[in-house]
Specification:
Blueprint (H helix, E strand, L loop, with lengths): L6 E4 L8 H10 L5 E3 L3 E2 L8 H5 L11 E2 L1 E3 L21 E5 L18 H11 L7 E8 L5 H9 L7 E7 L10 H10 L4 E4 L5 H10 L5 E4 L1 H5 L3 H6 L8 H19 L3 H15 L40 H4 L9
Parallel strand pairs: 1-2, 1-10, 2-4, 3-5, 5-6, 6-7, 7-8, 8-9, 9-10
The structure holds flavin mononucleotide.
The site of flavin mononucleotide has 20 residues, from helix 7.
């Protein structure tokens, strides 16, 4: 087994990396050490729904330890903090202030990054009331990357566990490249440990980031794991049989589909959820430029014996490219 001196964290991806995905993923792939749960909106709620809690309690997250996340704004005070939050049994929480959602309320998500004084007040109120370490996940700013400077000054005043930075602005959404220079400037100015997040989709880019920031011990990967579920194994140099990649991928996909079909009430929900995964997984296959838009695109073929109505290898739109899907660099980066 390869021992690595860095940690790979599965990023929170709302609608994707929930407890079902994380558990199925961990049954088929290794290399991911921890996960951050997709955000739990707490604004104005007195109580978090039990189904939301299931996503973050350790009881349901034995395979990959998970950290709960909440999405909060300045309104959060001790009285608005959900009453049942103490049932969260994980070591630390993270606040989300990087959501790039365009129609976000002005001072929520990455919008809050434009108001460092509000972040200051929020942390001031929250930290004494939370008996576990708190970290934050941020972007460089909402409108421009200069916003990070005032924000870092504020973060430096509070005892945070770490800062996860995705070096883009909120309005940038996912366009352009992750700004490594801006990441470096923010990290240098900050007293807290940094976690790198953004655009790790292949081992070469991971190596580049690692070489540039040797002091960073934790890296967060989101979309890259959806497109290439083998990515964490590749980064860690965990050897696997290239000839079995396609079959492993198929088993993973079919188990994922079975797990969601057991959870969702109708085929519409199931197809809706799986379409998201197909969108990201598609580039691993040749002909991926032809997107799957409707279930009929998949030419649903014979149901496999489980609850799963579609078998990946039987879906003609997904014509596997053996050269691509079986290629594995086995590059040891740790
Ligand atoms: C579909 C989608 C859903 C996301 N949901 C969340 C979320 O719930 N909480 C959060 O903090 N970030 C969320 N993010 C941001 C990711 O966690 C991550 O910061 C971003 O995708 C950059 O990392 P990557 O380039 O490795 O994907 C989401 C991103 C995407 C694309």
């Amino acid at each position: 087994m390869t021992t690595c001196d860095f940690t790979l964290i599965m990023a929170p991806l709302q609608g994707f990396t929930d407890v079902t995905f994380r558990n199925v993923y961990a049954g088929h792939f290794s290399g991911v050490d921890e996960a951050l749960a997709p955000f739990i909106p707490t604004m104005g709620q007195r109580r978090i729904k039990p189904s939301r809690l299931m996503d973050v309690t350790s009881q349901h997250n034995q395979a990959i330890p998970v950290t709960p996340r909440f999405w909060e704004t300045r309104q959060m005070t001790s009285s608005s903090w959900p009453g049942n939050w103490r049932t969260w049994d994980t070591p630390w929480l993270t606040g989300i202030w990087d959501a790039p959602i365009p129609k976000l309320p002005k001072k929520a998500g990455s919008g809050l990054l434009m108001f460092p004084e509000l972040v200051d007040a929020l942390l001031e109120k929250m930290i004494p009331r939370i008996p576990v370490p708190l970290s934050v996940k941020i972007r460089l700013g909402r409108k421009n990357k200069e916003e990070i400077h005032d924000l870092i000054r504020v973060l430096n005043r509070h005892p945070l566990d770490h800062v996860i930075l995705h070096p883009r602005t909120g309005i940038q959404m996912y366009r352009g490249d992750a700004d490594l220079d801006a990441f470096e400037a923010a990290m240098t100015a900050c007293v807290h440990p940094f976690v790198y997040n953004g655009d790790i989709t292949e081992t070469a880019f991971f190596s580049r980031v690692r070489r540039r920031f040797p002091e960073i011990r934790k890296f967060m990967i989101g979309r890259g794991l959806l497109t290439n579920p083998f990515l964490a194994e590749e980064i860690k140099g965990i050897s696997s049989d290239p000839a079995r990649r396609l079959i492993r991928l198929q088993h993973f996909h079919d188990d994922l589909m079975a797990a969601y079909s057991a959870r969702f009430s109708g085929p519409g929900h199931l197809i809706g959820r799986m379409k998201g995964f197909w969108h990201y997984l598609g580039p691993s296959f040749k002909d991926h430029h032809k997107p799957v838009k409707k279930s009929s695109d998949l030419l649903l073929l014979r149901p496999i014996p489980t609850m799963c109505p579609i078998s990946l290898t039987r879906a003609r739109s997904f014509s596997p490219d053996p050269a691509k899907i079986t290629s594995c660099s086995h590059q040891v980066l740790c």
